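Subject: Sanity check before I submit

Could someone independently write out the structure tokens for this chain? I want to compare against mine line by line before I put it in a report. The sequence has 474 residues.
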Amino acid sequence: MIASLRAAGGDTTEVEVKSAGGLPASLTAILSALANQPGGGTVILGPDEQAGFRPVGLGDPQTLKQDLAAKARAFTPPVRLTIDDGVVDGAPIVVARVHECDRSAKPCRVTATGTAYLRGYDGDYALSDVEEQGFLAARRPPLFDRAPVEDATVDDLDTELVDAFLATVRERDPAGLGRFPDNAELLRRGGVTVAGGQPTVAGLLALGVHPQQWFPRYVIQAAAQPLPIDSAATRARNQVTISGSIPRMLDTALLWARRSFDTAIVSEPDGTVHDRPAYPLVAFRELVANALVHRDLDHWSAGLAVEVRLRRDRLVVSNPGGLYGITVDRLGRDAVASARNATLVAICQHVRSPQTDARVIEALASGIPTVTEALADHGLPPAHYVDSGIRFTVVLHQPTTVTNATSAEPELSAAERRVYQALTGQGRTVNELAEQLGLTGPNLRKTLRNLRGRGLVAQHGGRGRTTTYQRTNP
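---
Independent answer below. Compare away.
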């Protein structure tokens, strides 16, 4: 595990490392967040992340383990730990496995304050009221996609999409759903409508003329980070809100990606020349389709959109609602086609893109393997998946730039390297770095302190003046 952390250059969403002279104050949020995270996580006390995870001396490991066990009882429900001794580079460490809190008891809170925490790909944060409702809703089986939509009628279904759906069902499933000759009966038995022709939530989202009439936040919000040449007042590029039915939103999202992704001109061995986007479009399409079909549809998430953020070094796609029926470590490995919205998935198997005639989804558990293969073919690192239980996030990274052997850039952790490389030219404020790098203020300040301590970064300003940071050797 330590070898993996050293290779990654820092903590992961599943593992937190602390150099402990005692129990750090941040452990309160960490234990709550890991207990609320699907699959739980691990806390390692002893190694120093800033020193390449080399161990520091633990004064009294036995007392540290006792204090850790006592700390676990300060939560409601209590955090379940499995605490073991370990050894790194010949020195003792303490390894605590944090077990996931039972779904029926989530969220796990700090008893003294009532605060619960979530783990994100950029740190731990306190649970909002809306996110808390997501945990409470997850205690029940999701059936929201089957409900009829009040005031909607069959006239609110898109005729073009419905005709293509009926034709596809009869072609691909002639002995099952496709055996019903009456269109109205087929739509009802397929979950698109209920008796009387009123559309269901699933039917309207997949085949509706404009589902946002009833679900205004069932949209995709996409935006790209400003470029270095943009003015300081520029907050985003290519910001769009994409609405419509699922197949039409998917088509529009692909058009946005073609406009927004950097494109390189590459030559193939056969002499042909092609445009190569920064991220493979097939992977982007799979991730957006999954986000649209598997997003949470409960009342708590009605105000949340699917989000796409294109930053200079990564692409982030997230949706409300965590994984359902599968865990992150099994994604792409087990042929498990689980579905939070079973009716919506069943309909979308037969829905076609009006622009390309391509299927929206296959529901064969082939999406993640497709993403993995496309990224590998593109020369990109594997996707990073983060399931907080009430939000699912996928991060695609650009390859880490390898510096020249003659470069004077020092040896840094992954987080330190990103901040150090961003500190070029004029001084930067914490807010500017947070916006550019997508890091939280506390994590940035910690990294900047480490860089200052090593003499690599200088701080300017303070005492009523704007505080900026700059490399000492630009």
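---
OP: Matches mine. For the report I'm noting this point. The radius of gyration is 25 Å.
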